[in-house]
Structure to design on (750 residues):
């Protein structure tokens, strides 16, 4: 169905008519100039926002819209958890070009709503507009936290332990895998087109018709078997609410925390810069999945570099006082990877053979995919 | 300066380093995963968001970036005022293509910060990313209000008076004017290019050189004299905080309110649909500026149609109980334009000669400029 058939208000109605409100703090959701939220004086309000652009943050040739919707919500919830808060509401703004159909927008919303439901978050408003070129998605998440629970980036102190949840580099490897498969597919398409041009030139009607059928039947469905984990990490990341809850249950209050969206190296630099400290991270302690290592080997890439700079892992990076060593070591899916130092020692990686390499924040490359700056 | 020279973090630092925090409710602004806000239990939190896309919502050929920044904030503040709230914080996300330079982004931010300062609003965070094509701007505004002060769209009741602030249609006329001047300018450019091609064909080097100089010196600076008001209404709209304050001082609590971003007709339909009422609006009561009327005449357009459907006025449309007639009539820059009816009477405009015309909400046209749907 063309979006123009439904009309703007029809589209919005269709997208929002059966949205359930889960939180008592949501006084009014979709349907007015603003959403209205209510928090008691005991709670602080957290707000975070992300803007995702087609061609920069996602490639619709291999990213299903439902997954894209899921991920666009998840990356914002991840920011609220990274403050040790609980996300409660999101707003969603979309800019759609004419090639998008109602079914496309519904698929996108299905993913968004699934992400919201899983994290008990209300979708309370937004904006739907048009775009001359691609799809743009802007999500704002609002959450709450008790003042004493909030964890900033600037609280790390020398001797604190540096911890990460899950494993790193898999989302980046998933991206590499999809880019490779896309390139293989596009080569097939080009080859068929070349042969068709040749058949046309020689007036070989039968061959032209056969090739044309072949092209029409060509489908981008590579065999991902054995690589599902990498794809899932790239397409459908999960915000680590479980880690935030586990820390709370274990009575561990991190001194600094953030989520890993741009890569471990860049995020460590953020924490150290804002906390006025240095750090030491052990290469051998960086958690990696088996599939990440295999894929890096296959692509002839250094797996540590992928883990340090890959990005989009949406794991939590946090520091805890040294006295918490025992408690934090008992947490499932959390690993101590190093420690915070005095600032004059700088930030360094200690390799398997004991050498020290200075950690560097990635430079900004406006064309590099997925590089964006939360503030 | 190229943005790549500064680097992402450099750009963000440069844009945000001297941002002042004005509100006690802003616990933490730019620089972490989320902004942290604090409201007492007496206050509700309002959130609104808008996504502006180059080529759809603005044309950088005639919109200066500073004005664009100002407007992108203002349209969001307008939504908070339309709830009878007070805006306190904004977040700003930008997607920039490679053609934007640091100076461009600074100009955009200058406008944003001026808008924030004028309305005592804090810029507390956002996201800066890249775009393959144009500029995308996503703004989220957060405000507060006492529960009993909040005005929704659904509170209008039969016999209520319908009021608007300021005048309507001027922003739309400003747009028409700029589009016309742009078209004149582009025709000049094309004509010069045509003559240059001709000179090239005839090997007339001297003429080619003269034409080339002429083209380089051609500047889009039309003479706007006498039309400044229309341009200002289009380029630099002002959210009507003064009206909200005047209503409060006069002890008038509107029964329904919203801002006029898509045109009076469309907004009236929103209020009537959500309030389950009809309405009657008098053509002769719709406030128009002299320049709007002159420009409409010049362009051979019906000025009432422009006022009804033009959009981007960012005036306030509100309803008050009939008993407030005297009080509301004494307010400066507010005009009563009609009244709310029972739903079965429908929504209609009463023309100068007493005829009734049914009001219609505009359909959604993904290519029509400036049509977007707040929820």
């Amino acid at each position: 169905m063309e979006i123009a058939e439904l009309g703007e208000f029809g589209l919005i109605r269709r997208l929002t008519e059966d949205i359930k409100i889960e939180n008592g703090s949501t006084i009014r959701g979709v349907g007015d100039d603003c959403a209205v939220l209510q928090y008691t004086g005991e709670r602080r309000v957290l707000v975070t926002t992300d803007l995702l652009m087609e061609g920069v943050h996602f490639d619709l040739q291999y990213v299903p819209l439902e997954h894209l919707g899921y991920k666009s919500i998840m990356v914002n919830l991840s920011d609220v958890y990274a403050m040790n808060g609980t996300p409660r509401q999101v707003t969603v703004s979309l800019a759609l070009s004419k090639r998008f159909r109602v079914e496309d927008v519904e698929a996108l919303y299905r993913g968004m709503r699934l992400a919201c439901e899983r994290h008990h978050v209300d979708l309370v408003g937004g904006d739907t507009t048009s775009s001359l070129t691609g799809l743009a998605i802007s999500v704002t998440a609002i959450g709450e936290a008790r003042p004493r629970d909030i964890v900033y980036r600037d609280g790390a102190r020398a001797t604190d332990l540096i911890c990460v949840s899950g494993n790193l580099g898999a989302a980046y490897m998933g991206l590499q895998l999809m880019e490779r498969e896309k390139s293989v597919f596009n080569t097939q398409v080009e080859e068929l087109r070349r042969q068709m041009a040749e058949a046309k030139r020689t007036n070989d009607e039968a061959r032209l018709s056969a090739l044309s059928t072949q092209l029409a039947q060509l489908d981008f469905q590579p065999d991902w078997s054995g690589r599902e984990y990498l794809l899932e990490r790239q397409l459908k990341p999960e915000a680590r609410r479980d880690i935030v809850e586990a820390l709370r249950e274990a009575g561990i209050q991190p001194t600094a925390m953030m989520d890993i969206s741009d890569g471990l190296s860049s995020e460590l630099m953020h924490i150290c810069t804002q906390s006025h400290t240095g750090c030491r991270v052990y290469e051998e302690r960086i958690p990696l999945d088996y599939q990440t290592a295999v894929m890096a080997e296959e692509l002839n890439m250094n797996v540590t570099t992928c883990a340090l700079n890959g990005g989009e892992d949406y794991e939590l990076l946090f520091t805890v006082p040294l006295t918490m060593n025992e408690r934090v070591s008992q947490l499932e899916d959390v690993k101590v990877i190093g420690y915070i130092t005095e600032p004059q020692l700088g930030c360094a990686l200690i390799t398997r053979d004991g050498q020290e390499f200075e950690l560097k924040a990635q430079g900004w490359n406006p064309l590099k995919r997925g590089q964006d700056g939360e503030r």
